[in-house]
Records
---
Amino acid sequence: MHRICHRQIHALLTETELARKYASVDALLQHPQLQEFVAWVKTKPDDFFVRTSKSARMKRRQR
């Protein structure tokens, strides 16, 4: 998996969510925010990379 995709998954989902609901690529691609991200990143060159920020929901969970 490309590094930017891996980082985006962890920015949006907890380890528990990944284990329970999104344990496969097909399941991940059903997540609305990941669908948007995949559509966007497909337009970028193969070596494209930007820093990934945690989602607001994930930031609230850390408090």
---
Amino acid sequence: MAFAGIGLMVIILRWAFARGSSVVERTAKSGSPDEYGMLVPVATPNNYIEGEVLRRSLVDAGVRASLAQTNDGPRIMVWPKDLDLAKNILKRAQG
């Protein structure tokens, strides 16, 4: 019975960690700012902490925003329909 249990565990672990079809999440890769689908960059913060503060100000105003770590540094990303609103909110928050 113990060997059957160990055999089953081996089969499950081999399936879970198989190359190309693993159910374990891969490490996220950074890309250029234009590789984020329909999201468009609205702000270029100096560091991740500043970016999170800006993102929170957008979320608090009701705008869906993401903070992405791109190859060019952190970027605040929003949907194209929210771009003008997000720019206005960030302008008020910084000024």
---
Amino acid sequence: MTKVLIAEDSETQRNQLRDILENEGYEVIVTEDGEAGFNAYKQHTDVSLIISDYHMPKLDGLGFMTAVKEDLPEGRDLPCLMLTTESSAEFKRKTVHLGLKGVVLKPIDANTFLSCVKMILVSSEQRKFPGK
């Protein structure tokens, strides 16, 4: 089963995202901020995708994803998806520089969100096993 880690400080948003993903058969780990997200990542290094809010207490989404990227073993890529209301050019530049696979603007549309998740996971699998 594909495992997805979510870091989101809004309980309502966490529950919505978890429900959307679990209804599609994903195993979901939810955390309330970037610091807890990083700790969960350290315990669940087999996650296939990280989804994070940008604006969170303790450690924001970019800080969380930077910490994960720096901790990955050499040669391993872990796709990350950012959820945010932020749309500035500077923010977009930072996400590109960090290598995020996508940004979904809030409020979340369930179908758009799920399509983005599936596309990222399929693309990630194709990079692992070219020609399949």
